[in-house]
Write a structure and sequence with these properties.
globular; PyrdxlP-dep_Trfase; Aspartate Aminotransferase, domain 1; Aminotrans_3; Glutamate-1-semialdehyde 2,1-aminomutase; alpha/beta; 2 domains; 443 residues; disordered N terminus; 7-stranded mixed beta sheet; binds pyridoxal-5'-phosphate; 4-stranded mixed beta sheet; transaminase activity
Length: 443
């Protein structure tokens, strides 16, 4: 059981660190959602993590349902990943030359995701999507990009229009500092709306280099594509000579061994042209990738005219962590993730129903989110639907869970992430916390 009771959970050490952080770092954090702005209160500064547990600097223990926002699919400090990281680090931290692990990680990705013939490794999901868009523009000789409202592809200038994630939480439609010229080439459409898609391509098709979509969106909460929607994306982009980029940074190697593509593909009209990956494939270290058709990848330097590079790309320690993580993602791991996720989501839904809190649960593999929708349950199909949530109810739920030793994502617009290390003890701790949190949400 968690070793601090809900009533006595001290957070003085976290609060003191936040005070210091605020003096030297904007908002006290290095990524906005960590600041707890959407839910209020003191972010917990984590000192260590093992398996499904986080321990903060005050000594409180939490069941972790954030999983570093996706990467920690095997749980924290998994022995095989730790050994791989320690082994790699002992041989050097960064070479700035090719190294064997880069080849092995690329081979592992190519073997798992059938349409991906080649990949280029980078250090973050943002770099992956930014580079994929540049490549699509270089390959097609066109400049416009289509994205969906509520889809987050990292903080790439051209892709920060109507993004989800932290942006949705803050209600900012766009970011300051993005020149109008960068956003002017971005067409933002509502998700799951084939008519809007066809209309946009009918009007601008000749200018459109690519359409980028989250394979199954998780940054406005989990909003899977309606049946046939991804097929429509493939059909329409192909009709107009535009590339289709499937952003699997969140879903890749999480929804299945080959990501969302493994669950929904192959598609009627063919596979997406390019894919982006991150999170799980780095095992908690900075490793990400973009890849796809070899004839398109051949446009990248040093073969072709599209420039892309990175001092730490393919870093030997990060690639060792990613390889060990992917190799640990066995079929049993995916079965276990789904079982654990079902148990937790069913119990959460039952507790909320018991306390008359209206909500809708949505799924993508083992990724799920609970939308605190007012009114009768109805599917959340796009960003406008997702924004109808009762945010104060979510904040009350979040804080009651936290006080009871369960760390949820501190925003109503996120997926909950389970790991293969969530054992009976961790699951029981979550189930025990839910009734009180549902009561708090109903107040
Ligand atoms: N694409 C998707 C679908 C994501 O969920 C994220 C991050 O949450 C990114 C891209 C950006 O990745 P990173 O935060 O590693 O830059």
């Amino acid at each position: 059981t968690p070793d601090s009771s809900p009533d006595t959970q001290p957070v003085a050490a976290s609060a003191a660190l936040m005070e210091r952080a605020l003096a030297v770092t904007p908002g006290g954090v290095n990524s906005p959602v960590r600041a707890f702005r959407a839910v209020g209160g003191t972010p917990r500064f984590i000192a260590s993590a093992a398996g499904p547990w986080l321990r903060d600097v005050d000594g409180n223990r939490y069941v972790d349902l954030v999983g570093s926002w996706g990467p920690m699919i095997l749980g924290h400090t998994h022995p095989d990943v730790l050994a791989a990281v320690q082994g790699a680090a002992a041989h050097g931290f960064s070479f700035g030359t090719p190294s064997a692990n880069e080849v092995a990680l690329a081979e592992e990705i190519v073997a798992r995701v059938e349409p991906v013939e080649q990949v280029r490794l980078v250090s973050s999901g943002t770099e992956a999507t930014m580079s994929a868009v540049r490549l699509a523009r270089g390959f097609t000789g066109r400049s416009a990009v289509v994205k969906f409202a509520g889809c987050y592809h990292g903080h790439v200038d051209a892709l920060l229009a109507h993004a989800g994630s932290g942006i949705a939480t803050f209600g900012l439609p766009d970011s300051a500092g993005v020149p109008a010229s960068a956003a002017a080439e971005t067409i933002v459409l509502p998700y799951n709306d084939v008519e809007a898609l066809e209309a946009a391509f009918a009007e601008h098709g000749e200018r459109i280099a690519c359409l980028i979509t989250e394979a199954s969106p998780g940054n406005m909460g989990v909003v899977p594509p309606a049946p046939g929607f991804t097929d429509a994306l493939r059909r329409v982009t192909r009709e107009h000579g535009a590339l289709l980029i499937s952003d699997e940074v969140m879903t890749g190697f999480r929804c299945s061994a080959s990501g969302w593509y493994g669950l929904e593909g192959p598609y009627e009209g063919g596979a997406p042209d390019l894919f982006t990956f991150g999170k799980v494939m780095g095992g908690g270290f900075p490793a990400a990738a973009f890849g796809g058709r070899a004839d398109i990848l051949a446009h990248l330097a040093p073969l072709g005219p599209v420039y892309q590079a990175g001092t730490l790309s393919g870093n030997p320690v990060a690639t060792a962590a990613g390889l060990a993580t992917l190799r640990g993602c066995t079929p049993e791991v995916y079965e276990r993730l789904e079982r654990t996720a079902r148990t937790i989501a069913d119990a959460a839904s039952a507790a909320l129903t018991e306390h008359d809190v209206p909500h809708t649960v949505q799924w993508a593999g083992s990724m799920f989110s609970i939308f605190f929708q007012p009114g009768p349950p109805k599917p959340v199909r796009d960003y406008d639907d997702a924004r109808e949530q009762d945010l104060p109810a979510f904040a009350a739920f979040f804080h009651a869970m936290l006080a009871a030793g369960v760390h949820l994502p501190p925003s109503a617009f996120e997926s909950w992430f389970v790991s293969a290390a969530h054992d009976e003890e961790a699951i029981e701790a979550v189930l025990a916390a839910l009734p009180g949190a549902a009561r708090a949400a109903s107040d």
